[in-house]
Amino acid sequence: MSYQFQKMPEEKVFKDPVHRYIHVRDQLIWDLIKTKEFQRLRRIKQLGTLYLTFPSAEHSRFTHSLGVYEIVRRMIDEIFRNRPAWHNEDRPLALCAALLHDLGHGPFSHCFEKIFNTDHEAYTQAIITGDTEVNAILSRVHPGFAQEVADVINKTHKNKLVISMISSQIDADRMDYLQRDAYHTGVSYGSFDMERILRLMRPTEDEVVIKESGMHAVEDYLMSRYQMYWQIYFHPVSRGGEVLLNRCFKRVKVLYEAGYQFKSQPMHLLPFFEDAVSVQDYLRLDETVLFFYLQEWMNEGDAILSDLSRRFVNRDLFKYLPFDGSVITIGELTELFTQAGIDPEYYFVSDAYSDLPYDYDRPGSKNNRKPIHLLTRQDQIKEISTQSVIINSITGVNRMDYKLYYPKEMIVNIKDPAIKGAIINLLNELN
Amino acid sequence: MSYQFQKMPEEKVFKDPVHRYIHVRDQLIWDLIKTKEFQRLRRIKQLGTLYLTFPSAEHSRFTHSLGVYEIVRRMIDEIFRNRPAWHNEDRPLALCAALLHDLGHGPFSHCFEKIFNTDHEAYTQAIITGDTEVNAILSRVHPGFAQEVADVINKTHKNKLVISMISSQIDADRMDYLQRDAYHTGVSYGSFDMERILRLMRPTEDEVVIKESGMHAVEDYLMSRYQMYWQIYFHPVSRGGEVLLNRCFKRVKVLYEAGYQFKSQPMHLLPFFEDAVSVQDYLRLDETVLFFYLQEWMNEGDAILSDLSRRFVNRDLFKYLPFDGSVITIGELTELFTQAGIDPEYYFVSDAYSDLPYDYDRPGSKNNRKPIHLLTRQDQIKEISTQSVIINSITGVNRMDYKLYYPKEMIVNIKDPAIKGAIINLLNELN
Amino acid sequence: MSYQFQKMPEEKVFKDPVHRYIHVRDQLIWDLIKTKEFQRLRRIKQLGTLYLTFPSAEHSRFTHSLGVYEIVRRMIDEIFRNRPAWHNEDRPLALCAALLHDLGHGPFSHCFEKIFNTDHEAYTQAIITGDTEVNAILSRVHPGFAQEVADVINKTHKNKLVISMISSQIDADRMDYLQRDAYHTGVSYGSFDMERILRLMRPTEDEVVIKESGMHAVEDYLMSRYQMYWQIYFHPVSRGGEVLLNRCFKRVKVLYEAGYQFKSQPMHLLPFFEDAVSVQDYLRLDETVLFFYLQEWMNEGDAILSDLSRRFVNRDLFKYLPFDGSVITIGELTELFTQAGIDPEYYFVSDAYSDLPYDYDRPGSKNNRKPIHLLTRQDQIKEISTQSVIINSITGVNRMDYKLYYPKEMIVNIKDPAIKGAIINLLNELN
Amino acid sequence: MSYQFQKMPEEKVFKDPVHRYIHVRDQLIWDLIKTKEFQRLRRIKQLGTLYLTFPSAEHSRFTHSLGVYEIVRRMIDEIFRNRPAWHNEDRPLALCAALLHDLGHGPFSHCFEKIFNTDHEAYTQAIITGDTEVNAILSRVHPGFAQEVADVINKTHKNKLVISMISSQIDADRMDYLQRDAYHTGVSYGSFDMERILRLMRPTEDEVVIKESGMHAVEDYLMSRYQMYWQIYFHPVSRGGEVLLNRCFKRVKVLYEAGYQFKSQPMHLLPFFEDAVSVQDYLRLDETVLFFYLQEWMNEGDAILSDLSRRFVNRDLFKYLPFDGSVITIGELTELFTQAGIDPEYYFVSDAYSDLPYDYDRPGSKNNRKPIHLLTRQDQIKEISTQSVIINSITGVNRMDYKLYYPKEMIVNIKDPAIKGAIINLLNELN
């Protein structure tokens, strides 16, 4: 039998708290899991700095990737198989794309990417198609298979149905991470009835649709997603951790560019400083490596770098205040911080974040989102917000929030009473 | 109010999947949690290499330590308070000892300790009584308080009741880790009715006893413990990870002692090589640091070190076989491996492990275990195995298991057919 | 100590799947639980006919009542106590009202009440203030205490704070039943973070308010409520069971009024037929008694009564169709059923139901609903829909649904092909 | 396609808290579920009087029967299918026997059977093979099929493999009820890893065996069973409910035989009094009917009957004391009760109960139990207690317990001080 359909003599399973067991019978999947590039995902936390707020959120992208694979496998083997719109020769493509969709994530992705101009989606593609163990295995299927997998993850593949299984507003990726992140943080918000949603999914030529009797289950899923964003992912304390980390990376880059002599040279970061990063350079980075350097930087002579890295490592976070996003406020405070001798570049950070719980592509809309489609009993396709009052109420509604971050004790220690008073007054007005 | 009884204006909580919330109202506890020594526990996994088998078992000693504190807090505030045998002035001592009991754990404790002769219990004491942030805070209670906390953890304190809350055969430590490890591995074995056990615990002058109506709940707890040991903690695959790590550390130490020039000097380990480790040296080590070096070693010129570290990092584990512990078998195979040019020091490992699910100190017994005592309705104290058929059946029953570990593909590649055949025959006989 | 504050020597607990344990320490509460009127709630299902759709939903109002008591007890003992706005002398009043709030529920409340003009709220009052064991116990507190408890349940008591703990849009009643009904049906929709909501509840003179940091938890609770209504409580199959039961009761009453001679006289129902019901008559009714008669009626000579009761007992439900509520459609079908010789009074039922997930009293609004109030960090009170986009979107939005019920096989068996065809055509248009 | 393999156009599901969903695709199974005999199981509680102790334990034999069916369906469709020892033409037989195995259970089985000499196993057979809806459906498969199903349930069928799926020491029946009863009582004891056990079950010609890697999961299952027996099923309070009910039935039978004129004749029981019970008579009985009569009896003139029935209905249970089973003690107390004018036949009950957690048929053993067999990696069959220390320790170990039940306040009210004193002394000695 050709490699992509080859079964192992006995099924392998992983114990998993979300799906109970993850089942692997395909040799191809098993071989991919054993690659060093996939094993590297064990050293990258799924939720970055969120463990600073939710201490049990220490799980990695490795288990999430297995979970997405398992959901796609169940979609195919339990629901789609034997339905006319599903072509089972696409099974290896769907399973590989599901398993590998996060392969290019780096350590503390969001903070790191902003400073070093890396892009995890581009690296996912580069790892899959480059000179890697993963590529060697995919290429055993056929020479163009690795590129096809990358295309599905990039959403450029011609098979829109397979893309929608992994990347849509109700896909295996989101269904896994909402449940998994809820499990590991210990909150109840991420719960929804995935079993019912799976049972009611139907393949069409272009996308996965959901039978209309599943409308309430989808409502519940979208609300879980909304709650997870605002209660967990956007938690201001953990964003405070990101703020610190971001400023650390910024400082270290600035120092390097200024010719600073590090006591301990951050070898792994040099290609990033020089903007000449190979796939192998990228793969050498993970959170254990960054944490090694963060701890080294605590001993550097540069006061800002050593302070920021110490704060992050020992969780001595900035204080935060909600504010209305006003540019004037930020301007005034930036000026006052500077006068007080506190560098606002590193010690005064405004953070904005927003979420669009559900939307779809309409004339004039900026996003590029595919709608969630229901399948009626008369086999018609209807966009879900036309059927659900609840979903209609949140469709296209963007919510923004702003926070200011600064080190409280530095304000307290400002010598000049006028400047100190002015800062405190401005901050009090925000509160 | 004196520091050890000072409450914060508002309670702080941590979301926790095992206890729902961990409640902190005491300033002393809050201050200890914020120390860098306690925060370091976030970088040490509770279950070492077990994530190689149970991929979600990525939780740290940080959350476990909070959990033990929470259980002891509930014992005191919900059950013991207002009972004559409990003296509430011991509350700070009990809470601090609970929180800090694992403070001296190092990275991958068991493997590391064996090679470098460190002892996490001694380091717990050293950190608590040495020049650390934790010590500074404890000393604010009174000058001898840090030593008292260390004495409770060391089981040398005169207050046997407080010791038994944290270190006995049914203590807060075990009750937390069984549940927490089960939660994160995703297995059901760790479940028992802690609420009932807590409700039925009674303080006496010497120890915590359990009302006899809780006997079945204790049986269930001991069985959970037994199952967790044999199904989770002793899982042969994850012990295979320990075997590899142990041989890595051994190799690196041997190389250092032989004057090997490392491409990248493992600075943090030098004090351990030299057996001149300060508390500060010890505290600088954590799993992110060791993982950094493990990845560096993959590029070292020494073939054994680079192979072993690559195997560990990329999870290319040894194969294992059960065997009967026979020294003769080991001797024969060791000899054959040597003849085949495979260094048995690193590539042929026999591993023995045993567990005594419950026992107590009797004349001639080697352990030093306090019995679990039941309190009858007539206020008599009875050792539990005299009351429970199930517990009686496992009391003092030691179970041993043996495994052999070796790299399967090295055997396959042995050139000399006679040696290869002899090895394969011997291994087949074991299976 | 006076009776209402008297504690039992040892706490009693009930094992409960929702709250783990229900704790009773007050003699007054224990005595109330032991009364025959409270024990009767074991024989009345919490969810009436819902077990016909969700087979495990067989739990009684007894456990729900204990659950509401437990939540109010925790509110008081864990959150309110020691806060200035809470007066602990109101504790017995609040606990008794919580425990007894459903005391007047009869068997299959909704169907029964419609036919026999009984009102469970009036009966709750009558049982509490009448000649009952419950009244005797409450009167031991002081002569007017029973009336006070009834007034809280009736929402006429002057203590608005206590009322709001038991009857508001986020009260102990709803928090218990959402979780309990979800547990017993086996669905995930009823989950929300009650622990967080409780922790953030604050008593004021007039009501319970919630700290604004709990806004998302309240959103999640309101969404759980919405989902439970549309996915569980309004499930069309179980409403089909209610439709049948309602028509059974109607038929038996019509027959009695027409002088029909029952083979087995329904003794317990005579006072209801005659509209001369005493409290004792009412208390003799429960679901075991009604089920006894329903099974007797299967053998009655009246074809309609025997058919309807057989259908209910053996779960041979009517078919249902969604429709738009059009009076014209109903009129046409009623006429056609009559022509076909199928009595539309019993065999053609239109059912409308609606839910208002959240609203508050505004000029012109028909409801009498108190808003949910948030407490800001500046101690201001704000109505929740002004703060939450999600809640704002559902505030005052009433959703209606309509279903038609009829016995499918009777349509199939209509002799006259023209009438049969006309009915089938009309029904097909609806679908 | 022949009826027994006919699939419905779309799968039907029941929501179930234990198995999430119960899946029905076979027309045969769906038709059986709709019969009145199967629907009757909704009116018989799974755990009889246990709700008096664990108030949420109100679930019926209906959901348990569906659960056993679902487990057998999964065994076949997920594990056995395509293995040589499994013959898929036995699937309908196995599914029907699983679904119907409890069909003959009557109301409060254990109490009722003792007094009226009925036997639920004989009635299961009688209902399946008699003139019933169930029989009509089974006979559509082929004329002898109903008898085959009955033979499997009776363990007389020649297909030992199918029997062992439903009736053995590790069968679908036990695996369902342990989990289901734990869920509804709210205890944690019933949890074990059914998924793992299912995955490791293998069919042989004679029985289901379990791969040896599942040994610990079986240990855990047997311990769950042991705990559920001693902590839940044998709970002395709920056995006190059985004691009362048993004495009620005894009294009503004695009265009938003595020609007592009931105010309200218990029509449904007359065939039982006369020992002339037809299948139809038996099927008319359920717990709603018995509860109707129990409430009627509260108003009967016979003081013993009205007292006992009132006690049961209103949960005014006897007090209980543990004792050593001594016949002498019982004799002395019986005599003293008689002297005090309290009829010991009804008001002084000794209750003995025992459990054998695991055993197998050996020369001289009284039970007729098949061992649990493990399948080794070398395909050998080994009895489990030879492999497991834990199971070996409980094999064949019978544990007995004794309780005495009596009405406490009747003792208190004895007029003669000598007799009263003597009784109280004897009871105190027991305690």
From TrEMBL, chains A, B, C, D:
Pfam families: HD, HD_assoc_2. CDD domains: HDc (cd00077). GO terms for molecular function: dGTPase activity. One of its GO terms (biological process) is dGTP catabolic process. InterPro entries: dGTPase-like, HD/PDEase_dom, HD_assoc_2, HD_domain. Residues 61-178 form the HD domain. This is HD domain-containing protein. The lineage of its organism: Bacteria, Bacillati, Bacillota, Bacilli, Bacillales.
